[in-house]
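Run Phosphoribosylformylglycinamidine cyclo-ligase through structure prediction, thanks.
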Amino acid sequence: MSNSYAAAGVDTEAGDRAVELMKAAVQRTHGPEVLGGVGGFAGLFDASALTGYKHPLLATSTDGVGTKIAIAQALDKHDTIGQDLVGMVVDDIVVVGAKPLFMTDYIACGRVVPERIATIVAGIARACSETGTALVGGETAEHPGVMAPDDYDVAGAAVGAVEADAVLGAERVRDGDVVLALESSGLHSNGFSLVRKILADAGLGYADESADLGGVVGEALLEPTRLYTGPLVRVLGVPALSGAIHSLSHVTGGGIAANLARVLPRGSWVEVDRSTWSPAPVFRVLSSLAGSTLESAEGTWNLGVGFFAVVDAGAAARVTAAITAEGIRTWQVGTVSTAPRSASSLAADGFEQGAKGVDGGAVRLVSTYAS
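Sure, done. The structure for Phosphoribosylformylglycinamidine cyclo-ligase is below.
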């Protein structure tokens, strides 16, 4: 019996080939701040860039893509998952007003297929370039006997920086502030356990055609997560809009109301007007297959709103125009109120207050979605 690593199911040569295939894509994300190139034990980033800040704060985030990976694996289509990963990680950093600096990734798999790993990382690198983030390192780990040969999972972490006096958050929000919605590209990377159950119950396969979805079911579901970081960093840097944006919210797990409530101050409340937008076909088709309403999915899917911006009322039109000019449809969905309301009355009226340990504001959705 051989006691070699290869006999145990780990192919180190395949790992080396994967690194060679991905190297060029990773290097394209490197500016002069990145030292040492690809393949070191640790990525190096020149922090002297922070000397230009008066009081820099570091912001960090980590996340994965969740069970959306199962659809990519089923279709053997792996070129969009990387963008999903970057969106889930880096778009959390910009919520506090930070500019991303660098990111690392981690891919666990049952078997290293160099071309597949390189395709995933190329997607990560493209999205990093689009968001101004250096991909400074990563790890591919082969887990034979723990994961099936063609299974994999991805995760990542990123670091950004923001001036201490420019941090966005609930403490900046005021009575009368306007809540803007930024359009999503689809499901993004949340709620796919529900998506997969709906399709399984309906007997619909990922490779099946759907006229309602405009093509192959799985390909429609793999629409990559919209990246908000680049546009928002640029808008935050516009001198004429300095201080206009008070807080931002990334609509991910927990859905619409809960994620907005996290970036509002306690004692404030917002009614989000559903009639201001029409959820995309993917949401309507899935809800129809499930025999449920769009409203019942508001705590799971973004339903067309990937981000919220809470802004000064006097600057709302200019902020809307600036974000729209960046290619993201943006519209007003509500107004912040601090008019006194008891917690019991808010709960009785269907408001959600705070989320994920944050004792924030209260939010409920009202009216009906536009057709």
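The two ends are 66 Å apart (CA to CA).
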